[in-house]
Amino acid sequence: GGRGGRVRETDEERARRLRAEAAKALKLKKIKVFRAITTMKFVEFTDQKVKERDKKLQDTLHALNQDRDGHRRTISRAQQDSFFQRLLDDIDSRRRAMEERTHAAISEQMAAMTPFRARPYSPSRHYSGAGSPGRSRQRSQSPGPGGTGGSRSPGGYGSASPGGYASGTESPGAGSSAAPSRPTSARPSSAGARQGGGFCLL
User: Could you tell me where the Low complexity compositional bias lies (predicted)?
Assistant: First the structure.
């Protein structure tokens, strides 16, 4: 043992330590060399790709800028007129087809609306209302108070008959056995008063 408790290594241990350090240094050197080589290769590969891309772009621009008159197709005047006429015919056919579809749609709508039209006027239908001809006619032809239904006199209501009775009632000498009906409400009429005190039915 040495001073301070330190153990002195032998020659064999020293040689083993030197070999381990040399192997470690060699490994680090190899790693550095590999990194340097990969970096150089990456730069070369990138430079090559950039050059290829630039060359492709230049070729494309040159192909676009070059004169292409030799590859251009030309048509005659007759072919141009024929093409234009076909366009006009196509426009006309499309317009006719559109008009036909429009007329068909309108006809279909009109056919659907036909059942909803109003019914025509029928003379047999009864219309009720004040002042209508039907009511006035029914009133004029309705039976009188006597039950036999008197006929309307030429003078109308309010004109007295020669016998002193108002129109719409039978006179005593009409040949029937029925007695003259008694009016429910009567007032003296001016014409009846002048002719002998007749009455007018309201």
Answer: 128-143, 159-193
